[in-house]
Amino acid sequence: MREEFHMAVRFDVESLPPNDRAEAIREVSRTLNGRSEVDFPSNPDLIRAVTITNALGSVEISSIHWNVAALRRAAGPMTDDVEPHIFVGLQKSGVSRFDQGGRQAEIRPGDLVLLQNVNPYSVLFQDTVTAFTLRVPNRILGLSPSLLGRITSVRLGAERPVVDTAAAFISRLARNQATIGETDAGLLAQPCIELIRAVVTTGLGCDDLAREPLHHTLLQRVMTYIRLHLAERDLSAERIAAEHFISVRQLYLTLSQAGISLGDWVRSQRLEKCKLELASPLHQFTTIEAIAHRWGFASAPHFSRVFKAAYGVSPREWRHRNRRLPAETE
């Protein structure tokens, strides 16, 4: 059962028939992780799971209390609607055993552990476990997958000052989820990202990266975000800046230093997508207007003008040139 309180979403299987609980938990897991497997107690009457989740911008904070036996992700591609991200887990009660990247770690109360959702992993839980988790997209964190791959499934204990600070911060966030409003969420996202970045880099002994501000990877993260959202007509400078916790002025400055004009670059990328679809037999029965609209162009006449200005031919002429004729007429 899902309930919404302010911005927090509570999921509790207690009200479900016992035989429906396992599938409900699997569905929640698939939403977060893509293809994954969950093991449960043999008696469905004993299955328990309560989660509370809150979005802090691109960061997601969750509290989990369950008696799931195991969680696994096998090798294979992610589903299209699941973005690569990293989990930071804080164990509050119980014992969990993590396995990823050839490393195994036993996690006890007070410990932190990280997992990448794109790589195979397994987590075994002893009895009932309570944990708090932060989920952060890789593109926002600004650290390479290879670097993240070196710190996953490693016990990070509270004897490390940065880990102790992060654990206290995560605990406080999780305890106050029900009272976090939209304004608070926007203010809390960036400290989460900076703290996780510090945990990762200091855990690896990369103090230089820990001190390196996120603006060093800002351009890469902005360009990745734009490519992911090209088809959305409300993709604006204001939205891009807010997503990366910067001002619109800083966004334009960052792009201009790389010789990029935001409007021109977005339009050129959208035109390339349209050009490919117009030439593809997979879209031969899709109207030009529908293709243009799918990639963010408001009207067919406007699309035709900018397409011809970019490529020297109209969309219709381009499609005709690239249309494959039947074998007998070639």
TrEMBL record:
Start and end residues of each HTH araC/xylS-type domain: 220-321
Keyword Transcription (UniProt): yes
The protein's name: HTH araC/xylS-type domain-containing protein
Xref: Pfam families: AraC_binding_2, HTH_18
PANTHER family: ARAC SUBFAMILY (PTHR46796:SF6), HTH-TYPE TRANSCRIPTIONAL ACTIVATOR RHAS-RELATED (PTHR46796)
Keywords for this protein: DNA-binding, Transcription, Transcription regulation
GO molecular function terms listed in the Swiss-Prot or TrEMBL record: DNA-binding transcription factor activity; sequence-specific DNA binding
Keyword Lipid biosynthesis: no
